[in-house]
Automatic annotation (TrEMBL):
The keyword Chaperone does not apply. This is RlpA-like double-psi beta-barrel-protein domain-containing protein-containing protein. InterPro entries: Expansin_CellWall (IPR051477), RlpA-like_sf (IPR036908). The keyword Signal applies. It comes from Circinella minor.
């Protein structure tokens, strides 16, 4: 009887901990999941909020303050599609003036997805 109770308690203990582990949220690689739609603009890069200095020819972007998640998305890759094509770029900066799903692209990255003359284009994008 004593062995039965010890075994029962041990099984319940294991089952309880397995159910706790299964209920933990799983974060998708790259942070926030899904495809986002917004507007793309370009900016002259330099020292970004992630602490890296970039050149205009680098394929880098600045995300809105809310998408930066207090710097958690620094260094992550995004894939964006615009009117001219698509580009994969690295998150290096924050765009305080951007709406939540908008992206500010380096000149090099923007040229891959849209016309510089347009200045602002519709985009869709996701974390890789």
């Amino acid at each position: 009887m004593k062995l039965f109770l010890i075994t029962l308690v041990a099984i319940l203990f294991v089952l309880f901990h397995i159910s706790s582990v299964n209920s933990l949220p799983i974060e998708r690689r790259g942070g926030s999941g899904g495809t986002f739609s917004g507007e793309g603009t370009f900016f002259t890069v330099g020292l970004g909020s992630c602490g890296e200095t970039s050149k205009d020819s680098d394929l880098v972007v600045a995300l809105s303050s809310s998408k930066m998640s207090s710097g958690k998305n620094c260094g992550k890759k995004i894939k964006a599609k615009g009117t001219k094509g698509d580009v994969t770029a690295t998150v290096v900066d924050t765009c305080p003036a951007c709406a939540e799903d908008d992206i500010d692209f380096s000149i090099g990255a923007f040229k891959s997805i849209g016309s510089m003359a347009a200045g602002r284009i519709k985009i869709s994008w996701e974390f890789e």
